[in-house]
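Justification of resources, computational component.

The compute hours requested in this renewal are based largely on the per-chain cost of generating structure records like the one below. Each record pairs the submitted sequence with a full structure-token output. That output is archived, and it is also reused by downstream analysis tasks.
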Amino acid sequence: MNYDLIVIGSGPGGYVAAIRASQLGLKTAIIEREKLGGICLNWGCIPTKALIKSAQVFEYINHAADYGIKVAGSEVDFTGVVKRSRDVADGMSKGIQFLMKKNKIDVIMGTAKVKKGGKIDVKGEDGKTTEYTAKHTILATGARSRELPNLKQDGKKIIGYREAMNLAVQPKSMVVVGSGAIGCEFAYVYSALGTKVTIVEYLDHIVPVEDEDISKQLSRSFKKAGIDVMNNASVESVDTKGDLCKISVKTAKGMETIEAEVVLSAVGITPNIENLGLEETGIKTDKGRVVVDEFYRTSVPGVYAIGDIVPGQALAHVASAEGILCVEKIAGHHPEPLDYNNIPGCTYCSPEQPAKQATRSRWVNSRSRLPVRQAPPARKTVS
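The structure output for this chain reads:
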């Protein structure tokens, strides 16, 4: 029950940190309450790309004549599309299990809560709580879909990204609130598969973290594909009482009402820092994120935090880099702090936008989790 390092959370930050720690000779364990791989492998980056691929294949078939090929009788097997996506995610999660075993990392399934003195309580599915101790603890608990006060998710008519990639029946119509990476991915997938999609974006252009010319071109592509794009618009309320959701949207011209079977809330993420024991142990937070220094040390000695729960770009490769750097510092190495102004971040969507259309060196091509272009605020020194 005693370890050199315990990592709480097995996403791209957590499992990479655990592997690096094992490689450096630290007795390591990782705690996960759901599936190894975290949101990225199970409900984010990986399964969404599988959905996009299925949508692209269907589009290729429907436009086969453009390539001199005749195809007849194509139709979407929505259940099969979803199953393929879930199978891909499950396969990746099993791959993480193999890596944990290969690197002799103990996997502890349950919900963790940090306590003083390097102690961690883990509550298993059976309700039993077991105490573990570690010289060092890394918090890597990731994030979840953000909920707006006037857009509460019920998992049926108002959904988040999890439900969007696991629906039992394909909706005939969908309103996507938010046009960031998640919103644009699902807007494309469902539109390509035959759902009537409307995007509602609060700002004056979609994919707001990308260059403006990219946004304009993608908007044209979406509209050509039959996706309605509403900029400078906000969802004020949703009436879910009837068969169709009635979405009240505030625009520059006034209030409009849109009807759709499903509303997808894609308005960002919220860090998972609740019920971790932060308050009880004195770990400082600021604006919903854990305060860390340049080597991810929190205000409590021996406790570190990486990934979506700390300031910075919420990207898979960022979390992995933070995990490696953090562990190497723990092991007595001398790593250089991460330069947050030198990190690539992209947005997956389709159709892909050529790089030559960008005013700078970014393009809408590929994404890993949720990109945040701006550099994070300067790391706070904790004591």
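Residues 355-378 have pLDDT under 50 and may be disordered. The longest strand covers residues 129-139.
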